[in-house]
Amino acid sequence: MSFELGVxxxxxxxxMYMWRELDLGEVREEMAQIASIGFEVVRLFPLTxxxxxxxxxxxxxxxxxxxxxxxxxxxxxxxxxxxxxxxNMSGQMWWPEWMLDKSGRPGDLFSDPVILKSQALLVxxxxxxxxxxxxxxxxxxxxxxxxxxxxxxxxAGREWASVLGDxxxxxxxxxxxxxxxxLPSLSTTNNMRVDDLGAITNEDTMHAYPLYxxxxxxxxxxxxxxxxxxxxxALSGRGRPTLMQEFGLCTASPGRMxxxxxxxxxxxxxxxxxxxxxxxxKYYDEVLERLAKTGAAGAYAWCYADYNSRLFxxxxxxxxVRERTFxxxxxxxxxxxxxxxxxxxxxxxxxxxxxxxxxxxxxDVSADEYYRAPSAHFKRLYGRWVSLSQ
Length: 390
Fold this sequence. Notes:
This protein is of the alpha/beta class. The chain has helices spanning 24-37, 48-51, 60-75, 113-130, 145-148, 154-171, 184-187, 194-198, 224-236, 277-293, 338-351, 367-370, 374-389, and strands at residues 4-8, 41-44, 79-85, 88-89, 92-93, 139-143, 177-180, 204-207, 242-247, 259-265, 268-274, 298-301. Helices cover 38% and strands 15% of the residues.
């Protein structure tokens, strides 16, 4: 089994404002650095706010910029996964203004005919522009969409994903489809069940952070990520390994010890941890080893870089302090110790020295039974996983 290595990408100097302030020279430099660290895939995020500025109207200038960024990645030898509906990103909801009513409340992403048709048009435009590009590794339907808005019903979630998935298959047949699932699809009733989505997509993915989990034993718990992959594969029921599409942690300044802070998380003051750079390297190393041994399809780090301080007076960085330093490289482009972890891991993988395993068996109930009480089952099964790993 090949273990895929990727990274989630925003530029150091423009972050989520990259599409409005695109600097292709900066992107090319950073793509070259990403490839030099040992990554082979980069995941991109065309913000819906920028790409879909009006109902039923895609900004063609932004589509052209997306194509340019994909070409920059391709020139660096990287494959690309564009995430096509991006409203939830880094603690901020980037709603297009036209989706909001006069009081600022969004319309229904999943059931409003105009909003759904507009999303399908965006997906179609991106897939049409990129579908013949050999650099495209897969299309990702959306990023943790239920944090932006939870579907009103299980059927609504399935129908939304089906509409977008069918659109891609019609325009760009043969390109794998994913969706950016995260822990609430395992631990809550969010109407985005992984078995429903697994029947629509070609690949299973999961995002998992001890930082955001009440079940994790610590901010640096190395078992939560591989467990989440194994559980996703089991619940999906497709017999395929799961890709850990996002995992990582934020860090303190170079030379500083780890420290707990109180930070804004989706509008709620929450304890968060800024790890020392040495702790971060150890965490990534431990998680990568466990992912390989438990039969995961691969791992994408969150994320490429820390952000330039000139962004700190712009959302989400004004309130979400942790988001400033989630990178593998610092804001000045210098590399943190974790980059050597990925270089060594890639070298071992390519030389055949990496110990990989079959998909770990974790589920002891049916998917329907699991989702009758997902929080309780998640906690119970994780306790068992941890006890067996000791």
